[in-house]
Amino acid sequence: MTQSSAGAGDHTVSVVVCAFTEDRWGDLTDALAALQSQSRRPDEVVLVIDHNDVLRLRSEQAWGSRVAVVANDRGRGLSGARNTGVEAASGSIIAFLDDDAVPEPDWLERLLAPFAEPEVVAVGGAALPRWSSERPRWWPREFDWIVGCSYRGLPEHGGDVRNVIGAAMAFRAEVFAEGERFSAAVGRVGTAPTGCEETELCIRVRRRRPEARIVFEPTARVLHRVTPARERVSYFARRCLAEGHSKAAVSELVGAHDGLSTERTYVTRTLPSGVARGVGAAVRERDAAGLARAGMIVLGLTVTAAGYAHGRYGQWRRRRPASVPEDLSVPEDLPVPEDLPVAEELPVAEELPVADADGPTRPFRPVRLVELELTDPRPVAPQVDLETGRTYERGRVLVRQGGRPVGVLDTDLVAGGLGARELTPIRARFQAAAAPGESSPDETAAGAAMPGGLAASVVIATHDRPEALCRCLDSVLATGYPDLDVVVVDNAPSSSATYDVVTRRYPQVRYVRDDVPGLARAHNTGLSLVHNPVVAFTDDDVVVDPGWVRALVAQLAAADDVGCVTGLIWPAELETVAQALIEEQGDFGKGFERRRFNLDGSRPADPLFPYTAGSLGSGANMAFRTSVLRELGGFDPALGAGSRGRGGDDLAAFVDVILAGYALVYEPAAIVHHHHHHRRELEAVRAQALDYGAGLSAYLTRLAVRRPSVLVDFVRLGPRAVRHLLTGSGAARSGEDVDGSEDPSARRRELLRLRLLGVAQGPLAYARGAQDARRAKAASTR
């Protein structure tokens, strides 16, 4: 009788256990003891010690009379250790058990039963998590594979699968006799959260023997220990990132079609069902943890996709011929930079020299912000600011044509500033580029806004910044827009300073106090007081352009299907490195062309639309048709500054407008000048990068929670989304490096790492923010 045709009871069985650290001695002891009391005892147990002589000697002393203790004589890591165990095993069936997994008494008996069918070449059992205390309520069962356990999505009653789970599995020895081994190109080394070596092996075996079957047997169970360190969100994210890298490695070895065959069903069916299940628990059972689980599914999918894309890009870089130029664009399906930031802290210099293209580094130079009107022949931008007496060597020029912005110019400033000689070629360049026949914002507004009867309200949320608020209110009132209503929402103030200054200096402005912190909540409070058909929102630290309200209203008056208009945000000062980095990282400028966005005729070519809502505008400069914003429920109080979500309230509103069938218009003629007086320090830049990342993933979590079907889009667009996240932030806007460090990329990597950390925090933050919002709403109705 051949081994392949033998029944389950005719086999000899070797169990291979691999161990690498003394920290798991207690777990290892429990696992080996449980093997000795199996209902079907193994014929031999092979304990492989992975490059740890101390552990090997200790194991020989404790277990040498009952198990075969061998040292891994191959490369360090789980694949090498398992291959060593294969060489040492003599059974016709070779089972593998993790050193921190304890099998139930009938585990081996049930694991062997499917081998009675000759076409079965591998069987995997069920690994159940043994949490340190209890399962974290935010942890979705769909992601139990993170801790090496069976997950929701596997066949409930068993059946054929693509691959087994490594914690408890068995193969016919003939598989290895034919030359198959666990690949050292994948697999765990030490505590590194990588894996997939059994997946790659199973795919290879099936390719060699198409008739072979690999079976999941859920009644063959082991309890897999989960340490407290693995019950954290940080480990969850790290493991997802590593899994993406591992899947990329498997795809490189066996091809993406086979390497991702199971994952496609998992992503398109299992995960959307998990999100819906979590949302349903939150709605029906008022279980806030349901939202957390839904959010963690979105986070896990996003981070795993990032790891996969990064791994595939690294493979492409390694395969690229040396003759290919370094500036070759990255292929669409391999979009992630190779130098993904690592976890360790990056050094940050406090003195920030700027690297010139042709010379040594020099300290950061403040930038003078000036404006050039092409129809005005007068010179601009002298070196010396007459108000402060400060001398500037650099200037950033906002160029206008008839009041409308048409471009930006970074230039060195010389004595006397930009005179006629310097301005002549500049005027010629921008006048040629300006769109012919475009009216100024004032002319457009005058022709459209008032006949349409669109009175407007401006809502300004503020928190303990009365001086900045006064500067903002002065500029809004100076627009001179007829029938303008201004509402100040004093959000969670620590004193009466804002109330005092508004009621004393601005009797025409309505003041309201809201003691619950949160920008979205404050905006909703202001929205509840608005009676005009247009409502605009801006921050308390901006100065609006004279034509700001008119430019916003004109676009809402021009077409009934426009639900939202956003505008250009221009810095009011660039005096410090921190302010320059905020401008660079914030991506406030969206260009100088008016653009219309919707799902139909005005859908942009960007495949990520509308999920990259940051390209649509920013919350410091936005206006809505009041009826549309109310129809959509206003802003989500679980998002935004001051909430757990920390941001994303504006992005969510933009996408709500688009998905509801309305159009959003970006109008660069609607300009606000953003002051960063309160953000002059580098720590503010770091905090902002973290908040941006959290707000982004919190807003995407909200989107997935409300529309689970978007998860399919998230997977399909994952590689492009990762590239957008990792390369679309912090592109320098001038030829000179605004960062100023000797290694200009180091600080950007630090900020990117903080943004990614924020992304990891966002889903759980949104779940907590949603819980806070429900509590606040319940308290307000009492």
Structure characterization notes:
Residues 14-177, 457-631 form the Glycosyltransferase 2-like domain. Pfam families: Glycos_transf_2. This is Glycosyltransferase family 2 protein. It comes from Nocardioides jiangsuensis. The chain is elongated, with a radius of gyration of 31 Å. The N and C termini lie far apart (79 Å). Among the domains are: 3-231, Spore Coat Polysaccharide Biosynthesis Protein SpsA, Chain A (Alpha-Beta Complex), CATH 3.90.550.10; 235-340 and 692-782, no CATH class; 365-433, no CATH class. The relative contact order is 0.09. Helix 7 (233-254) packs parallel to helix 10 (288-319). The chain is α/β, with parallel strands linked by helices and 782 residues long. Strand 1, helix 1 (25-36) and strand 2 (44-49) form a beta-alpha-beta unit.
Task: Summarize the model shown.
It comes from Nocardioides jiangsuensis. 40% of the residues lie in helices and 19% in strands.
Keyphrases for this structure?
782 residues, alpha/beta, Spore Coat Polysaccharide Biosynthesis Protein SpsA, Chain A, 9-stranded mixed sheet, 23 helices, 40% helix, elongated, disordered N terminus, Glycosyltransf_2
Mean pLDDT: 81
Name the poorly predicted regions. Answer: 1-7, 321-361, 435-452, 729-742
Structural class: alpha/beta
Number of helices: 23
**What's the oligomerization state?**
single chain
- Rg measurement, Å: 31 Å
CATH superfamily placement of one domain: Spore Coat Polysaccharide Biosynthesis Protein SpsA, Chain A
Shape: elongated
How would you sum up the major sheet? 9 strands, mixed
Share in β-strands: 15-25%
What is the fold-level CATH name, i.e. the topology of one domain?
Spore Coat Polysaccharide Biosynthesis Protein SpsA, Chain A
> Which CATH-level-2 architecture of one domain?
Alpha-Beta Complex
CATH class category of one domain = Alpha Beta
End-to-end CA span: 79 Å
Level of helix content? Answer: 25-40%
Number of strands: 23
